[in-house]
TrEMBL record:
Annotated coiled-coil segments of the chain: none
Gene3D superfamilies assigned to the protein according to its UniProt record, in alphabetical order: Tetratricopeptide repeat domain
Record's keyword terms, sorted: Repeat
Polar residues bias (residue ranges): 167-176
Residues spanning the membrane: none
Superkingdom of the organism of origin: Eukaryota
Protein name: PROP1-like PPR domain-containing protein
Length: 756
């Protein structure tokens, strides 16, 4: 029979070192091309797709193997055919590689006998690309109709002097049990049917029943073994290997080689029955077959699938000691191990070592791979690992800012940079206030990488800075939008205005009027038009600080800017004027408010009552309360407290007591502040006995008054020689604590009962 293993061994001898099949395949065992064109009939092409197709016509199958590699196809289902036109006229045979859809190669001899050998071994023996890492393609080889003519398999007489059996003998040998997968009309074998017959095999006897009398090329066995693994059926795969061992014992040593065991390891990995790995390795050792780099890579992948990352890294460290050079997939597997450990810094350090070897020319020196291309693949894979780990850290909910910034620093040292799209996706992953440093760093890197940046990303960073209370940092980003682009939209405007509102609210609550004025000026400088809400915040800050003149200026600027004052604007201005005791101007503002049809609210009425009391217009206070009631605004305890407080400041104890009576008539319950203000007013007005009675009433109602009211009664009774029973007042209430001390401790005031 013709020894067809010549070209199969030649074609597959270096496939073990390929990471992308077969971008730069050369043949070791095959004779060099004897055609006069030295194998130039197959032009070299490189494609990223793992599909291929090429044809060549030469005088004999021994002369057809070029040394410059195969051509890769970029389309599925349509193999590209390259022919040497000079050799075409002499006949010869056609070596045709098909793509994934029709996976095999044709050998056409002068006498038109065909050999259609499944080249799935080429697909199965190849190592996966770096981008896909160690995950093999799940093409079910057993489901593909890969067939060949029996006369070529068994052999015929050829011009090279090979003797073989006749077609009639082949037919007779294939009748009987094999009739299910033999087409008698075309003498073709359906490998799918053949694999279906074998997939329930449990031992050598079952395989012998199906394959008895068949002489198949080794790639067929590899294809079926790998297909059984994909179908998660290891029993027929091991049975087929045991049958091949019997054939080896019978003198067919070529059928059991490293490619068979690589396929078996791949089947173990695909079936996820990892416990059979040791069985395969022991069998290889018994047969005297040394693992090649493909076997080591598959073993590393098996360990990774089991989560045994340390063991996988140990296998990689053993590869040089076995006299082998790591392939691109070996390096990719190590990087994948770091990814599974989520150790992006370790992956970056490992890539740094690869980069040093690449610069020194030591990277892939003993391999036929296109290492320049593979190096860039490994680089991109490392970047992808860093990106995935960063996103994992950001969504973990923990404070990982320092870890991410350190990883950015490590990447900069090795020259690894994300693309703009990856940077922007990292920004979107920043959602916690702890991520503001990461978001700002990524935003800065996007700005430095080029002028283009998504406006939505900028808005997200502005929002995150506000969430983290980094309002000035958000304002800086907004300023860059104005200076460098892209042009801010309505969302940008609303976000930055909301940040100003937060700052203005803080200034309003604390009465920091200078800060509030600065913020409103900053808004106008950046082209932001303050609304009445922002103006009112500034007015309230001025009112709390008793800055009446500044409040008047802000009010005038508000009107000049075309913003209509609201009742809150007038209320804040009235409060500022009242605190500054500018009663006449306050009354003018009140009258102007009526002219522009701005209806007062409870706060404005309360403030105006204080103004009338301060101005001595007590009758107007009563009229003001009547007006409130007529407008449906019921005076609250706050209103009466303000009136009584105004009377207390002006020493009008009798007037304060009258308003206390009005309060009771209207059914408004007094609170602690009411009693304290009333007691203070009566004590100042020389009515300590009345103040004493009010204090006892408050105690009977369960009110807890401050020490200020207690002291006011005692001091007033001593001043005006009023006789009171201090023991009925009870113990002196503790004062407000300042630095851990009460007011009595600070000022040396003893307890009233002890002093009495």
């Amino acid at each position: 029979p013709i020894d067809y293993s010549i070209f199969t061994v030649a074609a597959l001898s270096q496939m073990q070192t390929m990471s992308v099949f077969p971008s730069n395949l050369e043949y070791l065992d095959a004779p060099k091309s004897q055609c006069e064109h030295s194998g130039s009939c197959i032009p070299r092409r490189r494609r990223r797709q793992l599909v291929f197709g090429a044809s060549v016509r030469c005088n004999s199958y021994r002369d057809c193997f070029p040394s410059n590699g195969f051509s890769l196809s970029s389309s599925f289902g349509n193999p590209r055919v390259y022919q040497c036109m000079q050799c075409h006229s002499r006949g010869g045979f056609l070596l045709h590689f098909y793509d994934k859809v029709d996976f095999g190669f044709n050998v056409e001899f002068e006498n038109h006998h065909h050999l259609r050998v499944p080249s799935a071994l080429a697909w199965l023996e190849q190592e996966p690309s770096v981008c896909e890492q160690i995950d093999d393609e799940k093409d079910d080889v057993c489901s593909k109709a890969v067939d060949w003519k029996l006369d070529s398999v068994v052999g015929t007489e050829s011009e090279d002097g090979y003797e073989g059996k006749s077609e009639n003998n082949v037919s007779s040998n294939t009748e009987g049990g094999n009739r299910g997968f033999v087409n008698r009309r075309s003498s073709r074998i359906d490998v799918r049917a053949l694999a279906q017959r074998l997939k329930f095999s449990e031992g050598v006897e079952d395989v012998e029943k199906v394959l008895k009398g068949m002489e198949l090329p080794p790639p067929v066995y590899c294809s079926m073994i790998r297909g059984f693994g994909i179908d998660r059926r290891l029993s027929p795969a091991f049975a087929l290997v045991e049958w091949l061992k019997k054939k080896k014992e019978a003198g067919r040593a070529d059928v059991l080689n490293i490619y068979i065991y690589n396929s078996l390891l791949g089947a173990v990995k695909a079936s996820e029955q990892f416990g059979e790995t040791r069985r395969v390795l022991n069998d290889m050792e018994e047969q005297g077959i040394l693992p090649n780099i493909v076997a080591y890579n598959t073993l590393m992948a098996i360990y990774l699938e089991q989560g045994m990352i340390r063991e996988a890294l140990n296998i990689f460290e053993e590869i040089p000691s076995k006299g082998l050079s790591p392939s691109s997939v070996s390096y990719s597997t190590v990087l994948l191990a770091y990814r599974k450990m989520e150790d992006a810094s370790g992956a970056v350090r490992f890539f740094g070592g690869i980069q040093e070897m690449y610069r020194d020319g030591e990277f892939g020196r003993d391999s036929t791979e296109d290492w320049e291309r593979e190096f860039h693949k490994i680089k991109n894979f490392t970047i992808k690992i860093c990106y995935q780990v960063m996103r994992t850290l950001l969504v973990s909910g923990e404070n990982v800012t320092l870890d991410i910034l350190k990883l950015f620093n490590d990447m900069d040292k090795t020259g690894l940079q994300f693309s703009r799209a990856e940077y922007e996706r990292l920004v979107w992953a920043c959602t916690s206030e702890d991520h503001f440093s990461v978001a700002k760093e990524v935003y800065t890197r996007i700005r430095e990488s080029g002028p283009e940046i998504s406006l939505s990303v900028c808005n997200h960073v502005i929002w995150l800075m506000g969430k983290a209370k980094k309002w000035w940092a958000a304002l800086e980003i907004y300023e860059e939008l104005l200076d460098k682009g892209p042009k801010p939209n309505n969302l940008s405007y609303e976000l930055i205005v909301s940040h100003f509102n937060v700052l203005l609210t803080a200034a309003k609550k604390r009465g920091i009027w200078k800060w509030a004025v600065r913020l409103i000026e900053k808004m106008q400088d950046k082209g932001l038009k303050p609304s009445s809400r922002e103006w009112n915040s500034v007015l309230i800050a001025c009112a709390r600080a008793s800055e009446a003149s500044v409040a008047v200026q802000i009010f005038m600027r508000m009107v000049e800017q075309g913003e209509k004052p609201t009742i809150h604007s007038y209320g804040a201005l009235l409060s500022a004027l009242e605190k500054a005791k500018m009663y006449d101007k306050a009354i003018t503002v009140w009258q102007h408010m009526y002219k522009v049809n701005v209806q007062p609210n409870l706060y404005a009425y309360t403030t105006m009552a204080l103004i009338y009391i301060g101005n001595g217009n007590y009758k107007n206070v009563d009229a003001l309360v009547q007006e409130m009631v007529s407008r449906g605004i019921e005076p609250s305890v706050v209103t009466f407290n303000a009136i009584i407080s105004g009377c207390a400041r002006n020493g009008l104890g009798s007037v304060a007591f009258e308003w206390f009576h009005h309060m009771e008539v209207r059914g408004v319950a007094p609170n602690e502040i009411t009693y304290e203000m009333l007691i203070e007013a009566l004590a100042k007005d020389g009515k300590p006995r009345l103040a004493y009675d009010v204090y006892l009433r408050a105690r009977n109602e369960g009110k807890i008054l401050s020490s200020k009211a207690y002291d006011a009664i005692l001091m007033s009774s001593q001043t005006y020689n009023a006789s009171i029973d201090a023991s009925l007042l009870g113990p002196r209430p503790p004062g407000r604590r300042v630095d851990g001390k009460t007011s009595s401790e600070l000022f040396g005031v003893e307890d009233a009962a002890r002093r009495g």
